[in-house]
Specification:
Distance between the termini of chain A: 39 Å
Radius of gyration of chain A: 20 Å
CATH class of the largest domain in chain A: Alpha Beta
Order of helices and strands of chain A: EHEHHEHEHHEHEHEHEHEEHEEEH
Number of strands of chain A: 13
Shape of chain A: globular
Oligomer: homotetramer
CATH topology of the largest domain in chain A: Dihydrodipicolinate Reductase, domain 2
Number of helices of chain A: 12
Structural class of chain A: alpha/beta
Mean pLDDT of chain A: 96
Strand order of the largest sheet of chain A: 8-9-7-10-13-12-11
Chain lengths: 352, 352, 352, 352
């Protein structure tokens, strides 16, 4: 720890939406001190030129990305970059003794061939990648606690997996019946000029995208297969809806035991997440609103059973930039450091 | 016809969102003349006091609801009222020789017991209700052409049924596999003070509602069963999303023949809707945006097949207040009158 | 006229928001036939690839911009391009006998020096520019009727000038007291990747831009000075608000005669716009909502007088892409052709 | 202080938007403990039934309003009620020794006649009202520190006064030239069914309301007059824009000394607010976005001078429910208690 009694951390890719969340969260975290912001196109600028509202909070500037410098200065590093860049940086940072939390897809896959097929980049860091742990604490808390390298989950994956995991783990559904209809806001598209993400285009409209071929599919399937103990294919369809933040995943699946009723399932979910302070199972008859989770690391889950069709419908709501990205990375770091996993993370959304 | 060469029509329940659409559409229709606006709480007011932007278009006022007066003055009447009121008015209007188009649920059901269970009102007009035709022209065009009484479909039902009908009619899917995830804006909630529909509550949020028990379920099932030739249960889940108008229904179903590819399905859909000018099948790889349909009577349909899961995903987009309500009612009236079914209806949305 | 009995018209810059409005409006216009779409980056594409929802309405493709071809094929041409391009094209098109309607700033200024200062481009087409008429029909209807070249007004300018003109023309206010606070949606920023226009950035926020130096200032001042008979400076401040379309201009000015009351002003405004079918003066106590004008060529004006301060507050609402851009250009063409100025233009917004 | 070492506080009117902000803020405040929630229509309900997302944060229920109980249990009480109710409660609570912070208009006026004229209620609590201090700490910090009863400012007033105060205090403008054009979201309308605040109505639209007669006018004038040392009338016009939270006040005024340039004014503002940690003066050329302030107690101020007109334009941005209401009340309580005025209050908005 530095003089402040806080551990020094850095962010590579600080000027994007993932980065600016991390800046805010690290500023408010009692055990972390932000000592490095790295970027490419924004190198040389004060951070407050990119985000003027933070002018009173940080006088850091964005620096060019120099792995030597980062490794010397930081004890933990968040990589918040487009897919395919982290895998060129992580090895050197790990070599320098840093803990690395990658927010891209580079270290999410057990099988790099799956990554190569879906992301179109050949990988040479197989040994390193094998040490990476999938950063969903509610499922892999123990392994995260011993990891140096964490591949933080995709936003849709976080919402989907928290909704479906108890069902698969307990063998309550026929896995091939699972359908995930996910709804997200525009911030998942990042802070770059993009016509479909213009307010003029995205507002007052809803549509599906990447139907039957979204890259989060193999990631969801990897974890589902792990939980089920055999290969599972899921139907995953993301939709863009006119809001800034938030994901609602609606999961449909057929119950193996048609005798189960809603309250049985609620009990099972409550038990499954008993040690997971960030997952809140809603009371019978209450369904989650994404708004409830905005700005927090929370995941709200609501459950319904349709006795007419023997299906369960599970709805989970998160903030895509928080539990779906930045705050979940800090939750992982808390665990890697042996701290309470709630340390320094917001749990009260402002409403409305 | 009156002196204008147009037939005189009236709207009961003119001050709601369904009513104001009808006023606009009738004003622009070459064969219709608006001669009566009826309301309860707004009776006595000029219509332009309720909707000031229409002050230059109509000097009609809202009158109390007097069935005798309406029947004498109008050749066709649109009933745009809360559920359970139309069935008390339609018999008298039909008796006076009016064509009646009901926008509520009262005349949508073949089996009034289903209505009574889901809507909680006992019915005494069985003989009349038996003459009613379900007002989805793409499926029941011929019967509508001979009807005096049309029960116009629910908004979610229109989007869902146009998406799924070709599959059921041709026996391409296992019916019990059908899952409908529907997304709609706030205008479906009507023009009344309602906390969940406040911009403060509904904006920046998404959530499901009436899961496993929405009243549109039995209506969808009635038509699906009719098409399939046997009883079909569907999983229908509506979601409220932060926009004013529009519905996107995403339909998932398992193909009976896993050899079918996307282009086969596109061909089947194009053939099915060949004589339906208001349904547009999108080219391969294009998925609908609700924005494209706003202000029009159009339904845009996009199709995807997932060869990994043997499922078809069909997405349909409509304007809930137009094809999902008011303009579809006029499409029905066009057919009842023997006119071209596109007569007087908007087919170009403004964009963006 | 062509075989269709309609005059052939073309659009240069068809793929932007101005262009797509024009396509829709020309399709619905009884006397116009769309025969040419020109573009630069989109040349060679079918128009329905850019706007899939129009696939059923036009099979035109976007062509490269060839002035010879355009001039031969079209009787009237709309130039919907970034500032500084139209002045390189208009001369050749006029030479070929086309009527030219420019939607950019190139032909809005009586004094090209003002243009050169504010827009940073030197001009060589002074003789041509002198023949251009400012395309605000409510003020310059007669001159437009005889023009071959019309410089269509800026969107903020249209709303501002329709609000303030009666006051200046009649000498009712001290001109230097005029303050215009204008609020607009994102579509004015065009269909291009732009970070501040992303839904993620623009939604849930409001801010001013180009304060004390927006390019619409000299354009408003030119017309104000013309009306007042002497040079007038105005305070003009635009704000970006989270909506797609629409402008509300709130105009504050000090009345010369403190004895005037609201109803006096309403009478004056009604008289001023008696022959202007597109301007609607609202009844006493009613203020305009931009929503009322969406999709139409209308301008709604509301008036208030504050007897405590002797100020008048005038609010005007338009659709920035319609009366503020595309439909106003067609209104001008209607006048240039000697047709009724309402011909083919929408006057009923859908609501809500 | 109680066992927790925190002082016990209560909220009367807890179920509205002001109340739910206070609940969140008090939960996160190190020196406060929430011990009472009072309401009328919601009495008897658990608070988490009204706001399910808070179920994991509080198990308090809403109690009926009993002043004796409140006075015994609480050391400080926030009254978050419609206008005209607090004045019937505050006397008894003060009598019991409570500090009272009223969020309504009841205790904002030095002259109760002004209140009676604008709010239409006769008052009998003149002696008590005379002891009330206007709760804008940046202007009245010293008086607040000695107060038992604080009348917290209106939301528009906070934004307007923070923007204009330095100009009046220093005599830099002609006071009668001041025009305030204010833009706010829907949450200011509260959590009650209201047709104009429906998303269907308020989204995609902007309009002014209560022009020349909004009740915040006399409140702004009272403080302006106090600062100027003579009676000042201001022109204040609120606008409703389609967003949930936030106010932007754009203030126009004529400079007495036309020689002043932007940087002079920035220096004056920085000096004026040197001891006010919640006001941030933006650098030259940067204008505030309301989004920057969301969820925080901050006020961002940007300044422009137009040398062509000798006017200054000041823009201030706040969160209407925070600095404009709930968090400002806690800032006042911090001062009343002798604590640091930033204690426990959020200063980092999430973005975007």
């Amino acid at each position: 720890m530095g003089d402040s009694g806080r551990i020094p951390v850095g962010i590579v890719g600080a000027s994007g939406y993932g980065g600016v969340q991390l800046v805010r969260l690290i500023q408010d975290h009692p055990n972390l001190e932000l000592v490095y912001l790295g970027g490419d196109s924004t190198a040389g600028k004060p951070f407050s030129e990119i985000y003027p509202h933070l002018g009173h909070q940080t006088d850091l500037g964005v620096e060019a990305i120099d792995l030597e410098v980062i490794g010397n200065r930081c004890q933990a590093v968040f990589l918040s970059l487009p897919n395919g860049l982290a895998c060129d940086m992580a090895p050197a940072l790990l070599e320098k003794g840093c803990k690395v939390l990658d927010l891209s897809a580079d270290y999410r896959f057990d099988n790099l061939e799956t990554y190569e097929v879906w992301y179109g980049k050949q990988r040479t860091d197989h040994a390193i990648a094998e040490t990476a742990v999938y950063g969903l604490p509610e499922l892999y808390r123990d392994r995260i606690s011993e990891a140096q390298l964490v591949g933080c989950p995709g936003c849709h994956c976080t919402a989907s997996l928290l909704a479906i995991s108890p069902l698969l783990k307990q063998g309550l559904i026929t896995p091939e019946s699972a359908i995930i209809d996910s709804k997200t806001g525009t911030s998942g598209g990042g802070r770059k000029g993009s016509i479909p993400m213009l307010l003029s285009e995205a507002d007052q409209s809803v549509g599906a995208y990447n139907v039957a071929r979204h890259r989060h599919t193999p990631e969801i399937e990897q974890v589902c297969s792990d939980l089920a103990g055999h290969e599972v294919l899921v139907q995953f369809t993301p939709h863009l809806i006119p809001m800034i933040r938030g994901i609602l995943a609606t999961v449909y699946a057929t119950l193996r035991d048609p005798g189960l009723v809603r309250d049985d399932l609620l009990t099972i979910y409550q038990a499954f997440y008993r040690s997971s302070p960030w997952v809140k199972i809603l009371p019978s008859g209450t369904y989650p609103q994404t708004k409830w989770a905005l700005g927090t690391n929370l995941c709200y889950i609501g459950i319904e059973v349709d006795p007419r069709t023997d299906r369960i419908i599970v709805m989970s709501a998160i903030d895509n930039l928080m539990k779906g990205q930045a705050s979940q990375a800090i939750q992982c770091l808390n665990i890697m450091m042996g701290w309470d996993e709630t340390l320094g993370l917001p749990q009260l959304s402002f409403y409305p």
